[in-house]
# Entry
Amino acid sequence: MFGYVVFNRQELKFKDYELYRSFYCGLCRELRERYGIPGQLSLTFDMTFVVLLLSGLYEPRVRRGTTRCIVAPFKPHPVRKSEITEYAADMNVILAYYKCMDDWNDEKAPVGLAYAGLLKSRVKKLEQIYGKKIRLIRGCLSELSEGEKKESRDLDAMAGIFGRLMEEILAWKEDEWSPALRRLGFYLGKFIYLLDAYDDLEKDCKSGSYNPFSDKWTPGTDPSAFEKEVRTLLMMMMAEACREFEQLPVIRYADILRNILYSGVWLRFEAIGRKRRQELKHA
# Structure
């Protein structure tokens, strides 16, 4: 359900791309150092957005360095890390673990259970630090599972559950900025949930899995009206998220964050629509 909060490379200045990559690599390195390769595998673009957003708002002391990775082992990459990177790494692993456990309970997916087993001991230690957040995350995933079992068609309610999960992730501290961060996270979470359902519709219909859009469009038919309906829903969610973002006093990294919120998050939506229209054309 993650991987949708990305940047638009074509509209990002080179210096901003390098800056973004340094935070992405910083989070990757933090996951490796704190949780080993299993933790590193949980890396997401979405949590990199969280790092940039919270770093731009709170402006922590950033530690700079370089690292090498298996993707490009011969060239050192700049990295930026801070206490926010540490927090994001913890949240990344917590989400990965409980999502795998939820999948196991619902679908008996052995791969997910095996991966969760690699993270279990580490997450148990995090429960002592983030007890309240973990209880809320587990509760939200449980609610989503129950809604799926009942085959709920209440889009707003189902998306809202994931919205509550994301708002808890963005609320790093309980302070004057947490209300706006929570609202931003809530609407961003609803956007992610709806876009993920839109993306997975064909796969879910083929496997018989739950999808809240399954009664709104049949794969293989003209997707135009369905696409328009989903776009409207997604625009409503992002309009609210962007409004909350603009209320925050974020100056540092603001260009990158706006690139993500106003442009990058739509890349996957556009790609899905193009693929469906091409498949219909060649059917």
In short: The radius of gyration is 19 Å.
